[in-house]
Design the sequence.
């Protein structure tokens, strides 16, 4: 395996991972920010209050995004194998 092939495949895998994780992480960040604003306005300083809504939001986004994620993952995997096949031949 050539170094350029390895770096290209590794770069594509990192980009794929980040693009698939971004919707879940962004939803958790938005919900956490909203809960933090509500906590600061109402002066409720319960630390565990933010975890449950974040988990539910992440799970909801995961359930909604699973078809998209699987399509992206399958097509990216096929593209990577095709790229490796062409590069080695």
Sequence:
């Amino acid at each position: 395996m050539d170094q350029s092939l390895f770096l290209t495949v590794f770069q594509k895998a990192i980009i794929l991972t980040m693009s698939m994780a971004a919707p879940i992480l962004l939803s958790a960040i938005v919900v956490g920010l909203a809960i933090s604003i509500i906590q600061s306005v109402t002066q409720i300083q319960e630390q565990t209050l933010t975890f449950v809504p974040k988990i539910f939001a992440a799970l909801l986004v995961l359930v909604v995004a699973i078809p998209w994620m699987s399509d992206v993952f399958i097509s990216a995997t096929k593209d990577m194998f095709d790229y490796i096949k062409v590069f080695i031949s």
Residues 77 and 89 are 18 Å apart (CA to CA).
